[in-house]
Fold ATP-dependent RNA helicase.
Amino acid sequence: MKSSLSTSIFKKRQWTRRLQNIRLISQATEDHLHDHYSHSKPILTFEDAGLRPPLAKAIYTAFPNVKTPTEIQSSLISNVLEGKDVILQDETGSGKSFGLILALLNKPRMVFTDDLSADRASDRPAITSLVLVPHRDLAFQMLHWIDSITQASDVNPPSLASIAQVLVREGRRHISEGLPLIRNEPPHILIATPASVVEILEKDPNAFHLRELSTVVLDEVDYMIETLPLNHKPNKGHSHKMNQLRIHPGPARILLDQIYGDQSKLSAESRESLVDAPYHRPQLILSSATIRRQLKHYFFSEKQLLNRNVAKLRRSVMRLHGRDELVTDELAIRSMISHHVLVASEGGIVNLPSAVISEAKQLPPAVEFDEANSRPMDTTSSPPFDSNAASRSIEFSMTPSPLNQDLLEAVAAVFALDVPSVALLVIPPSASVHRAVYDLREMGVDALGMDLLVQDRGRSYLLQADKAHKANPKLLVCTSSSIRGVDFPSLTHVFILGYEALIAKDNWTLTLDTYIHLCGRVGRFKKPGKVITVVDNKAVPWIEKVLHTLDITPVQLNTFGLL
Ligand SMILES: Nc1ncnc2c1ncn2[C@@H]1O[C@H](COP(=O)(O)OP(=O)(O)OP(=O)(O)O)[C@@H](O)[C@H]1O
């Protein structure tokens, strides 16, 4: 790679040395790649989109269902490999995160040296891409995808740790436990929650160098960067929330400020003086199904982190506000998902009065655990051992449950009659997953707290099993804060427990987005699914307003004579 350096690259090195006392070696590969896929050939395969053939081959082997990239994945991959900033917005389950990971795997590895005259022995691989995600389960899901692709690579696959590592808060374990590995063997891709990166860098600013990053991805960006609606009529509540955001900007904002500096503070002159500098600011990629105007305002105007050269990739987008264009009306949330609301009380369970009668959607057949997928993952940390389970059970057996038992019983009844393989139950963020699992097990439901590091609590469902057999149905319990972006291909049902599971930070738009994302765990990649919200009588007007605002018609659930 070194021998192919062009004169311009050499100049860049000189600049680099002067400005940063480090030498960027792998830029040559990026320039070569740019030539490779700036051709006008129609993009039909991952190779056409710019992926190296060995990587594409490993993808086909690891994911037999993945044969060609979707149109948006093709342009995503080309734009990422061209080094462009990207805003990616497409509906839930359309393959955004998956496409992103493929593009990042293909990026050339950043290699630096602190001594320009030294030979290659002093080359130091650096973290090329930092992928920020809102919670640990999404981080481990991405790691799992990368692990599967790595294992499917030809002879002598590289170690997973050299390709990707995860930095997250790990229950009772401290996040710094993973640091020595990151320091000694920096991964090509670091997947992390913003809070864990901020915490680590506060403790040790040299843990890794943000300035050496080539790419920064914020997946589920709107969840990590809270914004308030624009043109909001000023009132006390709104001003209070604005102040709160100023005082507590949140770890993602803090981290972006650290990585990019506050570009809006640069004067035009100081910008001019930077024009010739070879230091590239890291390419910035934002992705979500729900990117609202106020978030774009934050990146374009308030922080000036993006400008008009950004590649805006949009496809199926819900109308989130008046001026937003609906790019297509074939949204999975309306065409592939049926929405049900059950009102549960001591007197029984009834459908929402406004629900219409409709043909049940044909659900895919049940699947069993994917044995091939049960190989332990080589992660930087092992799953937390839950030694408190027994004592918790004793405690729960002696205390009344704070959870509404009528709602839980409705979930248990529908689960028993309608779920073929695996379903998800989303409980309010303030509720205890352990307690919900305990209560449901007392009702005879095979409920488990979702944890993507544990085989039967989520990991088995990360890849689609090939065989279609009826398995012992499982109900995975989680809160809305740990479900964004999670992908279980065999999932058919999402249960939402009470309207409290939807309310997000007392922010109506966030609440609507929460419903969109919870629903989006099914109806993925053209597979049908059901979303069943179970509420008490008081919450009926409220859930009707949510569905009405999203232009969703609730459908009666009456296939099994329960109601
Ligand atoms: N080109 C493809 N062909 C077939 N399946 C694909 C393709 N790309 C992705 N998938 C599958 O689609 C599923 C959804 O992918 P992914 O989680 O990336 O969607 P997403 O758009 O990021 O969803 P969300 O908005 O909920 O985060 C995954 O199971 C993935 O394996």
Q: What stands out?
A: The chain is about 35% helix and 15% strand. The longest helix spans residues 136-151. The pocket of adenosine-5'-triphosphate is lined by residues 63, 65-66, 69-70, 73, 90, 92-98, 289, 485, 487, 489, 520, 524-525 (CB under 6 Å).
